[in-house]
Amino acid sequence: MNLSNTQLFRGLEEQEITSLLGCLKAAKRCYQKGEVILSEGSITENLGIVLSGMAMISCSDIWGNASVLGHVAPGSVFAEVYACIPGQPLLATVSAAEDTAVLFMDVGRVLTTCTNACPFHTKLVRNLLNVCAYKSLQLSQRIRHTSSKSIRGRLMSYFSECAKGSGSSSFLIPYNRQQLADYLGVDRSAMCNELSKMRKDGMIEYEKNRILLKNLE
User: Fold this and answer.
1) How confident is the model at residue 13, as a pLDDT?
2) What are phi and psi of 125, to 5 degrees?
């Protein structure tokens, strides 16, 4: 992956990124599908960038009921908030949804000027702030999607956001059925039944992860 295309390193040249990776003690690690990358309750000083594959962020209550909080696609960052707060235990688990490669970096070296006084360090700090602001927006979107009392309302809120983001009434979602149910905070069987009803009502068509919204005129 070309790191200059990621949100964290946006606006930086390849040579500048290479220099920064040395300052930030960057280390690449690979995980197999289903493997835990960071576990709930653990403490990390590193933020991670997904280089390939897909990571899922989830949490569970004391009874083991899981809730999907979001996903991390290639080029996206995770654990940045926890890494910025020394000693703060993770409130969620990050796991590999498929075979996934991650680049970890010491966030403490992002927030403090390195001994080399890199002239491009300020860009990195600004980009990190943008990443945190974007994650806050994503959480606000999930709150909006789960505010409806009905499963159909939650589905349509999420599908509407996906359609707007893709600029098309046909789009792919990053979740399987169980993950989508967990993300929206609903029962999987009830959600699948509602999807079938929505198809019969002529509201949507779907094939695995591809959704088509109909009758938008």
Assistant:
1) 86
2) -65, -40
Per-residue pLDDT tens digits for 125-172: 888 888 888 888 878 888 889 999 999 999 999 999 999 999 999 999
DSSP the chain: --GGGSSTTTT--HHHHHHHHHHTT-EEEEE-TT-EEE-TT---SEEEEEEES-EEEEEE-TT--EEEEEEE-TT-EESHHHHHSTT---SSEEEESSSEEEEEEETHHHHS--TT--TTHHHHHHHHHHHHHHHHHHHHHHHHHT-SSSHHHHHHHHHHHHHHHHTSSEEE-S--HHHHHHHHTS-HHHHHHHHHHHHHTTSEEEETTEEEE----
User: Dihedral of the CA atoms 208, 7, 131, 142 (nearest 10)?
Assistant: -20
Instruction: Taking the CA atoms of 199, 58, 25 and 45 in sequence, report the sign of the dihedral they define.
Output: positive
Cross-strand bridge partners of residue 103? 28, 49
